[in-house]
Amino acid sequence: MLNARKHNYFNYALIFICLIIFSLNLYSEDNQNIPKYILNMKEIAEKGNSDVQYNLGLIYSNGEGVDKDLKEAIYWFKKSASLNNVLAEYKLGYMYDNGLGVQQDSEEAYKYYLSAGQQGNADAQYNLGIFYRLGIGISQDFQESLDWYKLASKQGHIAAQNNLSLLYEEGIATQQDILDAIKFFRCGN
Predict the structure, then answer these.
(1) CATH fold for the domain made of 1-120
(2) Among 4, 64, 145, 160, which has the highest number of CB atoms less than 10 A from its own CB?
(3) Could you tell me the pTM of the whole model?
């Protein structure tokens, strides 16, 4: 979790630095609708910087300084994910899971969530818990659901703690344990 926070701070610092460096001449002459700092970020991203690629994906997915363009966002997230950027992998899983800029595809979402979850992303681990609990895009497996919820819960993921409490309360994939159910319920609320 600490590494993810450091990674996020680095990403925000990188965007902030780009904004400062390129703020004197905000818009390029040839692309008047695209701020120059974004064009400069694209130049850096094309050279293989996965953090800048991920940040461009965020910029386009949120419409920050440019028109919102989910197809462009996916392009940059995929480039970043191909370099094993865990945040980009999670974001792609989320976009496929919810049909944002792409056809909704649970199997594709699962693939990206699995990669991000194996690298320790708590949100991806939580979503994997849901996928296994409900059998979304994969075979239903309560034990796998329990294991993914536990991983996310250890990182303080509140929703995972709530769902973990339900599994203990219902005795699904584990022996029914009301005390553990209460413990995880309290952690999640």
Answers:
(1) 1.25.40
(2) 160
(3) 0.76
